[in-house]
Amino acid sequence: MGISLGPNQYGKSEVRLVTVRREGAVHHLRDLTVSTALRGDLTGTHLTGDNSAVLATDTQKNTVYAFAKQQDIGEIEDFALRLGRRFVHTQEKITTARITIAEHGWDRIPVDGVPHDHAFSRTGGETRTTAVTVRENRAWIVSGVDGLVVLKSTGSEFHGFPQDEYTTLAETDDRILATAVTARWRYQGEDGIDWAGSHHEIRRTMLETFATKHSLSLQQTLYSMGEAVLRARPDVAEVRLSLPNKHHFLVDLSPFGLENSGEVYYAADRPYGLIEGSAVRDEAEEPGPAWTGAVL
Ligand SMILES: O=c1[nH]c(=O)c2[nH]c(=O)[nH]c2[nH]1
């Protein structure tokens, strides 16, 4: 019975690449998920473990990051072409490369109607929520947003934390701060509230505060956002926020003789810090059953 190797390919999937191009105070953000798949004469590695034709998937990933630094990414089609040609034209046994790229869109956060220099919100994916609890003749309303993804490419520091024998995190006075806001706010009162207007203003207040508040920790940003909502909306008694710290790590490009001074980042998806907390009005009505059974 003859057995032979069928179709095969290999590569690095879902390389998360975020770049920040700085034009004075104005930052330009790109956010891509890049996958590579190479085909060619790869019988050696499959049949005998001879890896002489196998450009490591780790090398493929590094190529993505190095290319992002060396040249403006441009259109994703151009970036994919540059990568594909590199692999096919430098690797004798590789005949075909398929590069797939998904670009994630970001809008500048408007602050007083003006697009912010370095604070962005991700397009799409956001939902508006409400949970209404009715008991006898009363009602409690908790509304919110899920999946409001925001990022600021500067204006965030983190330092002064305890150093023990397991601490390796470097202190920083300039980092990317990114999170997906899950927010819930509890109204005081049940009727006569402009729900749409309230949602709009709370969302705008959270976004503007995220953009403009210089951050010394995500915890500080969380409280500032909640506090700003309570100041803006007398009909809200309490705001709860759950903020994952979506870490962006500077890619070490020094092995390739390239300096990375805050341009090319790896967007990690897990593990992530999860910062949760609430801001409560001193004279707030009792929550009653408003939060009972709620996730936040
Ligand atoms: O804003 C932050 N808060 C933390 O508690 C924390 N912990 C950490 O490792 N990085 C950060 N960043």
TrEMBL record:
InterPro entries: Uricase, Uricase_CS. It holds the Pfam family Uricase. The keyword Ubl conjugation does not apply. The keyword Cell wall biogenesis/degradation does not apply. PROSITE patterns: URICASE. It catalyses: urate + O2 + H2O = 5-hydroxyisourate + H2O2. GO terms for biological process: purine nucleobase metabolic process; urate catabolic process. 5-hydroxyisourate binds at T57, F158, R175, Q219, N245. O2 binds at T57, N245. Its EC number is 1.7.3.3. The active site is at K12, T57, H247. Urate binds at T57, D58, F158, R175, Q219, N245. Keywords: Oxidoreductase, Purine metabolism. One of its GO terms (molecular function) is urate oxidase activity. It comes from the Bacteria. Pathway: Purine metabolism; urate degradation; (S)-allantoin from urate: step 1/3. Catalyzes the oxidation of uric acid to 5-hydroxyisourate, which is further processed to form (S)-allantoin. Belongs to the uricase family. This is Uricase. It comes from Amycolatopsis sulphurea.
